[in-house]
Structures are given as C-alpha cells and as structure tokens.
C-alpha cells in the first residue's frame, strides 16, 4: 500500500482544493502528515479572518494580544506570513488606545513586512480605536499587490481619508457608510483608479451624504467604460430618477446592487442596461400592498432590457428575517415578469423574504427551465407544486422554501422524502432547504462496499473564527 508521502503532489493539490472553503476539513488534513501540513497551510492561511465577538465587559488586562480564536496570530509567523493573500478584520476590536493596546502595531508590522502577497484587505470593525488602522493604511499605500479593498468609517474619517486615497491599482473598491471627508476625495481617486484597473465600485450602508451633485461627480469617462459592477446604499437625498440617470451613464454594467425605499413619485427616466446579468435589491419591510407593487414595478424598470441571470431580493429590516412575520403580500408581479421576459436566461433566484403565490410559482417552475438555484417564501402547498414540476428543471442544484402561515414544529420534512426527491429529480439536485433546515445529498460507500445515495442534515464544519 502506498504511503501518504508517496502520493503525487499534483494529485494531492487537486484533492485538497475540493475543501478550499471547508476550514474544518483542511485543519484535520493538516494533522495527517508533514506533506499534508505543507499543502493545507497554503489554503488555511490564504484567507486570514479576525472577527472578535462582542464583550459586554471591558477587560482591563486586554492589550490586543488576540486571545480569541483566530489564525491571525499564527499567520504572522514567518512560516505562514508569505501565504496570506486575504486579510479580513471585522467584529468588535478593543477601543483601548496604544500603548495599552498593541494590536495596531502588530497589524502594521504584519502588513508592512510579513504579508507580502496581500491581494484582498477588509477593514470593517464594529468597534475600534480611532488610530487602530492609521499606520496600516500608510503601509497599504506602498503595497503593489493589493487589488481588492473594503473599508468602513474606521478608515474614512478626515485624518485617514487622505491615506486611503494613496492606494492605487485597485480592481475592486468597497466603502461602507462613507463620510463627507471620503466623498470629497472620492471623485479624484476614482478618476485615477478607473484610468488604471478599477472595474467594481461598491458604496454600501448609510449613504446619506451622497446628494445628486455628489453622485454626478462620480461619473468620469474612464469609469463609464470600465465599470462592470456597482453598489449604491441608502440615501434619502436621491430620487429614483437621480439613480436611474446615474446608472444610465454605465451601459457596461453586469452586476448591480441597489437599496430601495418607497417614494410617491414613480421614476420617469427610461433605463437601459443591456449587459446586466446580476441584480440585488435591498429593501425595508413592507406593510402595504401599494408598497410591494411599487417595488416590483421599480425592479421591472431596472431589468426590463437586461439578459438577467441572477435576481436576489433581501428584506433587511430585521422584522421579516424568518419569513413568518408580517403580512404575506405577494411579489407575484415581478415573478410573472421573470416568467415572461427572462425565462431563457434566469439561473439564480433568491426571494426567501418575498412571498410568492401559488399561481406565480407554478408559472415560474414551468417556464424558467434553466434555473439552477431557487429560494422562495411561499404557502404550505409550495412543496407539493415543486414535486410536481421540478423534474423538468434539468440544471437545478439547490431549492429552498420558507413556508408561511404554518407552525414550524408541525411542518417537518423527513429524510426519506428528501432522499426520494433528490433521487427522482434532476441529476445535479443535491441541496434542499425547508424552513432553515438544510438537507444535502451525496453518494457514499458502505462498509460492505455498496454505493448508496444518502441524505443528511447539513451542519457546516468550521473553525471558531469562521462564522455564518
């Protein structure tokens, strides 16, 4: 029998790459032998995540030494530092100032000297000391490998905004809750970035400082021709017409994310996005039918001329998160539009927080035959309808349902029913979600050598710093 050490290197790389995003499995593989440890370390430390949990008590002994679970500390070691390509910092950092908190110095030294292959950096903590990233931003300005940057107000206030704008050669820029200081410098920075490499711009969260005049300042000739993905957060200063006029300046857009709020006046500007393939909508909870109809009509105006492949509609007010509270106002008008106008191109549909009526669901499953992933909120009859029609969805990989108007403890899906669904359905159908329970199917080998199809409730195997 061949030993692990005798296995072909290229074969092992391909096998371990299957677990690229399963940190728990990678960690277990790293304990097998020295060869496995070397190969899995490249995947384990490719992305370093630091996201301390909230603590209601101030620990006066905390000096930013990061005792909470994270691979950040070990990633700073010379053995692993050169493997780090992504650095993502979020959560609740200590607000204590230096020298009581040494984290800012540790991070600066790592970015300046150790993390020599950084391509992605995310600095979006919920709590922090105001100077925690000052030195790090200076170091990032001298980093030639950085291509993807995401920051929030911890990096965009008046003292730090000029440091941010020194960074060049970005392909993707993400700004959360942009400050006035950042917005004043942003047009010139975008002009420089778009002339080089920038193709994605995401301005998210609270964008109240963005007025029509500020929005117009973002438009430049290089950006108009290069931009492929765009996100725009919530600003009550912007009407639908302001946003549509702005979007019309970017005919090459392929991905778009917008935050919708209900307005009395409907948009009058005609929008043509002939390249748009992915559209994500965020909206607050709706309590009236006219609000839902207004939202659906607004979405139809955005995607009417697009070869739409992916539509995601997210209710982010926190009240309808489980899909079982609030009025069940149907989004059938947008579903009917998809069935009639985008049936040939639609592949991904996520309406988990948007109620879909029985008739609209039947039409969707009967016409959108190329769909790969579908997730909807519907009545208790939805699964029966799905069982009747899903056989013709030959590309289906995952289906999800949030069943409304029924008690969860009285609406259960047993393993045999799920197994029969997957066995009798499309060949790639391997994942079913019902009211938050995730079922995954796979072929397994029993001890006697027989190969059988089994279904289990999926529980992700993650390391402590990997959160849902």
TrEMBL record:
InterPro entries xref list: LRR_dom_sf (IPR032675)
Protein name in UniProt: Uncharacterized protein
Source organism of this protein record: Amanita muscaria (strain Koide BX008)
